[in-house]
Amino acid sequence: MDETGIRALEERLKQAMLKSDVAALDALLADDLSFVDATGKVWTKADDLNGHRYGMQRIEKIDVEEQSVRVYGAFAVTVTRVALSGTFAGAPFAGSLRYTRTWGDIGGTWRVVAAQCGLAPF
């Protein structure tokens, strides 16, 4: 996998998040995913999929403002700043976040194995 391929996976992930496409998210996320959100809460793959499946989180906009990609053989790290908006548990949210994702080649399929996001400074 090269940088172009990882950027394509990031775009697929973005589109799946916007559409709450649980099948696409299931294919892109590792079964043992650990995702730390901006509040410090740790989400599993099941948590993330269920948030989309049952409408707990709806993402209406993801504008990628900057992104770096580094590939290290069988894994890659992306750092992405986005402007994000949507609803969580019915309450609207909007902000600028920075995501760090680790992608890994798991049995020939690249998936997100770990991720963390935090508020990005203005």
Task: Report what the structure shows.
The chain has a six-stranded mixed sheet. Strand 3 (57-72) and strand 4 (75-88) form a beta hairpin. It has one domain: Nuclear Transport Factor 2, Chain: A (Roll), CATH 3.10.450.50. The model has no long low-confidence stretch (mean pLDDT 96). The chain is an alpha+beta fold and 122 residues long. Helix 1 (3-19) runs antiparallel to helix 2 (22-28). The chain has three helices and six strands, in the order ααββαββββ.
Euclidean distance between termini CA atoms: 33 Å
Q: Given the helix and strand composition, which structural class is it?
A: alpha+beta
Count up the domains.
1
Provide the spatial order of strands within the biggest beta sheet. Answer: 2-1-6-5-4-3
Order of helices and strands: HHEEHEEEE
Instruction: Predict the CATH topology.
Output: Nuclear Transport Factor 2, Chain: A
Write down the CATH class: Alpha Beta
Low-confidence stretches: none
Which value, in Å, is the CA radius of gyration?
A: 14 Å
User: Given the structure, what is the number of helices?
Assistant: 3
Report the CATH architecture.
Answer: Roll
* Rounded mean pLDDT score: 96
Domain DUF4440: 6-112
Protein name: DUF4440 domain-containing protein
Organism: Caballeronia insecticola
Pfam families: DUF4440
